[in-house]
Amino acid sequence: MKDDNAMKDGPLPTVAPTAADVNAAGARIKGRVMRTPLVRAEKLSALTGADIWLKLENLQYTGAFKERGALNKLLLMSDEDRMRGVIAASAGNHAQGVAYHARALNVPATIVMPFTTPDVKVRQTKELGAEIVLSGHDFDEAKDTADALQRERDLVFVRPFDDPDIIAGQGTLALEMLDDGPRFDVMIVPIGGGGLISGMALAVKNKSPDTQMIGVQAALFPSMVNALDNGERVTGGNTLAEGIAVKEAGRLTRDIVRKHVDDIVLVDERILERALSMLMNEQKLLAEGAGAAGLAAILADPGRFKGKTVGLVICGGNIDARLLSMILMRDLARAGRLARLRVQLLDMPGQLVRVATIIANQEGNVIDVGHHRTYSDLPAKMTCMDVTIDTQGQDHLNRILQNLREEGYEVEIAAY
Description:
Blueprint: H1 19-29, E1 38-40, H2 42-48, E2 51-56, H3 67-76, H4 79-84, E3 86-89, H5 93-104, E4 109-113, H6 119-127, E5 131-134, H7 139-153, E6 156-157, H8 164-180, E7 186-190, H9 195-207, E8 212-218, H10 223-229, H11 251-260, E9 263-267, H12 269-281, H13 293-300, H14 302-305, E10 309-314, H15 321-334, E11 338-346, H16 351-361, E12 365-372, E13 382-390, H17 394-406, E14 410-413
Parallel strand pairs: 2-10, 3-4, 3-6, 4-5, 7-8, 7-10, 8-9
Antiparallel strand pairs: 1-2, 11-13, 11-14, 12-13
């Protein structure tokens, strides 16, 4: 499909892709993009009551599904347009997909990324040979810069979602799921601008029309929901799912979603965190926030999916290591496996040892201690001590608290 994105900025494409375009894209990119595994998630299925199957797009070379659409787009460009070079605005995964396949096809690539993009995505995109321009605090501000550079340098703009060739390429993921898996009652797909779910919906409704297509968005970025019902929900904020943090849904994609997607659900940040932790701890899968959105939708309303065969797309695995570490530690705290206790005690020798002994006698492990004498509203002869402990779970933590209180100490769990 020829695309008018090759014009200087130009109007958005108006011809929507079809299921036939998705099928053609599948043949076109075959052998150039990894056919990722589709696996049954036995532990997650047991925990949720749904029969969950995971499409592991986090195993792509760049760690995300975006390679599919980027490659399809580049392969459909003329030799003249490839020589001009391409430009893209992206929070990371689209950037890496464009950069990776542009390098393979000897196409110069410039990528504009928001300042807030995780360092791992910036570094990996640069290593793929693209010129990186950091600008703006979100995708929309980065896109403004990319628009200006595109006109200034006469480059071809490769849009992340509102492009028929991109949409068709992303839809190839669903073709593989339908070929490799069982009959799905539901597929749950993350939505940012809508490219992935649009392409998948075209493929699914063509080959398996009874399969429900459900989109999921971060509650902080309900852009597609707003586009469909003319809502005015506030859009913006710091979301764990920065890969789908798009303030305005695509023009092409919203029309496809309106026609072929059965429902869209919104999930909050706490559920996204829990889903990401479950993928890591229960399924041993590394996912970024957007990649965990499908599971988050199930956790938010497990009764809706109980007993159903559900396909989820782990759409990306590019998460900053520090952020992942913080999320996993917070999850341990919520489960009572890690706790910071604030203990009031007399400011006299031996008190620290006594508290530590009580904890040790209950087989708790002290991993950090801090005293607070000066900055406290306690009486002058009193002090408080923060003790971080490792436990076997909530019941074990409760026993430790009970024993400290029985020994006369006032103790509370500090907020996490």
